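Hey, quick one: can you model this chain's 3D structure?
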Amino acid sequence: MDNHSLNSKLIEASEQGDLAAANQLLGEGADVTFKDAAGQTALMAATQKNQIAVVKLLLEAGSDVNSRDITQLTPFICSGANGFHEILSLMLQFGADLNSVNRFGGTALLPSSEKGYLKTVQVCLDAGVPVNHVNNLGWSALLESVILGNGGRLYSDIIQELIDAGADVFLPDRDGKSALQHANEMGHEKITAILNKKYEENNESIKKAKKLARIGYYEEAILEVEKGLEHDGQNLDLIYYKGFFLQELKRYEEALGEYTKALALDPMDLDFYFYTANCLRAMRKSEEALSEYDKACALNTTETFYRYHKSNYLRELGRHEEAVIEMDKLLALKPNRYDFSFHKANSLRSLGKHQEAIEAIENAIANDPTNPLYHLHKEQSLELLVKQANESKGKN
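Sure thing. Here's the predicted structure for all 396 residues.
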């Protein structure tokens, strides 16, 4: 077998999580530095599918955690953006650049804060990823978790972690607003209290459980929660934490059962639809997860949080046509959100709809005229449009 075939097969085996095949291919001389047409190494392929055992094998074989694909994404940042904290922890042992950023200028901490990956946030902070780094959208991890969060239980814990790590509550975004101002405007009282360092957990079971979970003692944390539930069996916060700790232990069916129990007690606590969706995503049940977002959207048609995270997930699945539909619904609710237009433009570019991508990014520019990221994106889309037109002429 020639080297190119060996290398291509290594990427394929890595993506599929075939440890035996990957090991054999390495023994036959496959090159861990080889990149496919998308600039993807075997390590990136394994990382994107959360293939932990293969990632470990490739790291030990010399794979570079900081190698970039054609989108400027590295395996290290990819692991953070997807909440794959076990892979992230491994990569920290193999030269991960804590200051490295993706094409949007975000470190591994920013997307994990945005998407609600608490354990990943903790790993990033413990490793020393800069807590106040600002991306090209003008947001820090704290701003992202406030603006793109919902003020619920999970995001409260993420924001508390960021505050404890020294996040600047007064750092302004490109509109001149701080995380504290955003939290006040959104009416998130608990988040405001956390940002003002005035929040204190008053449930002893939760307090003890969170301390145990922070150091990875999830079984013990569950026992603490269950003690609380013995006296207060319908406490939704206690039920949430039991579900969350079960989810961290990968006992997904049991976690889902807890979240479903909470929804039976209070179907209007929309926070739990986010948790059920997260759990189903971890179970790789994409259609069921998308359905959970839809349930929340139907119950509150003016709330952008659930639709935004649905659109994020659709982009991760490569379902950009559907993602654009969701972004249009979001922009109908909040036409001045330049980040919504930016994400729409990215999906349109992925679909090869460069003229429409230009129109979307022009809306972002109209609402944030001086952001160089949007002007660069427009220039790139114009170049792609010309290239597309020339290729079309060539075919004719």
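One thing worth noting: The CA atoms of residues 207 and 318 lie 40 Å apart.
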